[in-house]
Amino acid sequence: MSGRVEDKVALITGAARGMGAATARLFVAEGARVLLTDVVDDEGLALAAELGDRAAYTHLDVTDESQWEAALSVAEERFGAVTVLVNNAGILRAIPLTAMSLEEYQSVVDVNQTGVFLGMKTVVPGMAVAGAGSIVNVSSIDGLQGSPALLAYVAAKFAVRGMTRVAALELAGMNIRVNTVCPGATRTRMMDCPDMAGIDIEALSNRMAPLGRMGEAHEVADAILYLASDAAGYITGTDLTVDGGTTAGVGVEMFSQITA
User: Fold this and answer.
1) How far apart are CA 196 and CA 235, in angstroms?
2) What is the maximum span of the chain, computed from C-alpha positions, in angstroms?
3) Cα separation of 39 and 13, whole Å?
4) 124-141: buried (b, 16+ CB within 10 Å) or exposed (e) per residue?
5) Burial track 80-97 (b if 16+ CB lie within 10 A, e otherwise)
6) What is the pLDDT along the chain (260 residues), one digit of tens a residue?
7) Please, are residues 47 and 18 in contact by the beta-carbon 8 Å criterion?
8) DSSP 69-103
9) What is the pLDDT at residue 256?
10) Is 72 exposed, middle or buried (0-12, 13-18, 19+ CB in 10 A)?
11) 220: helix, strand or coil
């Protein structure tokens, strides 16, 4: 590894599994000190122990402002000033508009959107004192386009992209960069959402993505690492899409019909 985030201190949400865990592994391998946070404590603690002295874990419900403040204190006491925030925590519910309750809608927005707001608000003062920072907010290709039955998820992920742009403008003078990563269908436990039982997500992804496969968590982690690193020092307020070409155009399935 090349030490692309050497000596940076990162706080990663949703870090016990999937893309968050892959990002934590990569950051530690690349020289960062990392506070993993999640609500899945057993898995988070196990991963932090596996990663060694450059990693630690604490419980964080991203919808709770007091827990954000407590998590930041843990990071600062253990590793020093947080200079990288990865807002990765998210939940998915696939419920048609007319069947979705207000509570179901709000629960998705609370984690996927409000959690991002609270994370940015919490870490920015310390980054400003440190003189630099990078915030990477995980949106989705569903923050770039509509998807049936994902109204709350789409709403929150579009919002994350908008919030990122506003934050990038407001924080540029503090030398804090803010960007989004927009993954396509990625092989994580989120794809096991009970609401989507019976849907072959992998087969669907294979048809929709020009590269013909689902993404892997480590491929999204690579994109997050790049935006967090000094190699992306002139990049802020933008989206990095990691979707195998799914949102690039009409897609493989339509192309095959046109050329048949």
Assistant:
1) 36
2) 62
3) 9
4) bebbeebebbbbbbbbbb
5) ebbbbbbbbbbbbbbbee
6) 679 999 999 999 999 999 999 999 999 999 999 999 999 999 999 999 999 999 999 999 999 999 999 999 999 999 999 999 999 999 999 999 999 999 999 999 999 999 999 999 999 999 999 999 999 999 999 999 998 899 999 999 999 999 999 999 999 999 999 999 999 988 877 666 666 556 677 777 777 788 988 999 999 999 999 999 999 999 999 999 999 999 987 555 544 554 45
7) no
8) HHHHHHHHHHT-S--EEEE---------GGG--HH
9) 54
10) buried
11) helix
Question: Coil, helix or strand for 50?
Answer: helix
Size (the chain), residues: 260
Block residue for tokens 């207000």: 102
Handedness of CA 112, 38, 182, 151 (dihedral sign): negative
What pLDDT, on a 0 to 100 scale, did the predictor assign at position 83? 98
Give the residue numbers marked as catalytic.
153
Separation CA 27–CA 37 (nearest Å): 14
CA distance 68 to 54: 20
Cα gap 260→256, rounded to integer Å: 6
Q: At what angle do helices 151-171 and 115-130 cross, to 10 degrees?
A: 20
Query: Tokens 């407001």 sit at which residue?
Result: 170
Spatial distance between the Cα atoms of 196 and 207, rounded to a whole number of angstroms: 18
Residue recorded with tokens 């995980």: 138
Place of tokens 């923050």: 143
Task: Answer for the pair 55, 36: CB distance below 8 angstroms, yes or no.
Answer: yes
Give this prediction's pTM.
Answer: 0.92
CA distance 125 to 121: 8
